[in-house]
TrEMBL record:
Protein keywords: Coiled coil, Membrane, Transmembrane, Transmembrane helix
Protein name, UniProt field: Uncharacterized protein
Lineage: Bacteria, Bacillati, Bacillota, Clostridia, Lachnospirales
Coiled coil: 184-215
InterPro entries according to UniProt: DUF5702 (IPR043756)
Species, as recorded: Lachnotalea glycerini
Residue spans crossing the bilayer: 358-380
Source superkingdom: Bacteria
Amino acid sequence: MVGTKYYRKGHITVFLSLILTLILSLVCTTIESARLQGVIMQLQNITDMGIFSTFSEYNRDLLELYDLFFLDMGYGTNDGTSERVNMRLKEFTEYNINVNKDLGLLSMFRRADMLRANINEVSTNQYVLATDKNAKAYYSQAVSYMEDKLEISLVQKLLSQYDSSITEKQDIFENYEKSSSLMEADIENKKVEYEVEYEAALEEAKGDLSKVEIEKPREVSNPVDTIKELKKLSILDLVIEDLSNVSNKNIRNQVELPSKRQLKKGDATFQVKTESLFNQVLFNEYLIEKFPNYLSDSSNDNQEGLDYQAEYILCGKKSDKVNLEMVAEKLLLIREGINFSYLLTHRQHEAEVLATAILWYAPALAPVLALLILLAWAFAESVIEVRMLFSGKKVPLLKSSQNWILDLNNLDKLADMLDSGETDEGGLDYEGYLKLITYFSNVKNKTMRSLDLIELTIQSKTNKNFKIDNCTQAFTTTIDYKAEGLFLRLPFKTIERGSKSYRYSITRDFSYY
């Protein structure tokens, strides 16, 4: 009997095995590709959440006191660096990648995470500091804040007050003031010359007055001399009734302030507000609103700061009293220019009549003395007006016969008439004149000095280590992620040949402004 032969044919099994391998490869590749797309989208979301979380820690004092959005890169220290921000960003981002981080037993479910990603590196590409480009980041935020707050019509009304003719009148007055000493010398020389001539004539007549052909010199009251004596006093003695109420606070270490020290610099470009007339008005309004002045209700109880902050912005001295004195002199100069211009065109004849009476022996010099009388008259009127401003009254910007205070015959009685001025409801108050001075001040100086005050205030209130050049407005950062393969390794997407991980870099920009 012939035995039965059995053939073991495996071609179907082999075929199905090969087909199944290809199918599984295709399925795993599809699933892994889909997973990686989800990973990329999730990492982008995680990056955004990390950025927003990091920049939500903006400095609260800057916002509450000055309506500014900046992130303090020092985080309570005086060493503000982009690396500190990167570390903070990495911390926030890691919690979003691994939601079970630091949750004890729940961390064991990490392997069930389909994301399987970690942060490889966080780096900063560029950032903008508050002090960059002469503090243009700060300037731009301040202007934007006032844009949102003030109506355009109000700004245009404010702009109309800043008449360039005010500075022109001031220049004219200063030119006459500079030549006043020469004019006084000419008059004094002529007086001495006349006295010598009279003495010679008297000697020639051997003491017989009836034979002296020229008139005996006689003293005539000259209000210019009275004003010269008053000018020797401190300006604050003239314009403030009680100097005991004037602050004596000082800045202890002015060389460490932003306007004096070497500042850190960012390396990013950013959009800034131009120094147009419109923006300057807005910035001036910001300075007057945020920084108290001599007549403000608020005062700084901490000895590290200044009470008269608006005055510091204008003058930059370390003492409240010195700044106040310099502002008083600026106010006096503005008023003198305006008043002298009015006198020169409307009241010159009165001065010429008085000058002729005083210089009866030298009528040719009467016009010269008339100018000196006008200068003294303008000074006296201005002292009264500045005193009014410091007492809270209003003074009209331009003068007329209706609002003129001091008559010429009362010029030598100025000391008794310092409080004779009455407020003019149509005029400007002390704060209004501060705006006027601020508008014509150097933009860089007032910007940097205001940063001095911001830094001093925050240091005295909450954070002694605060530095304004540690504060950033805008940031460009790149986060480098490493994600593990799960279903299948895709060689064309791995970090390098043979690696089991994928690498993704995500760059984001953030700016408060």
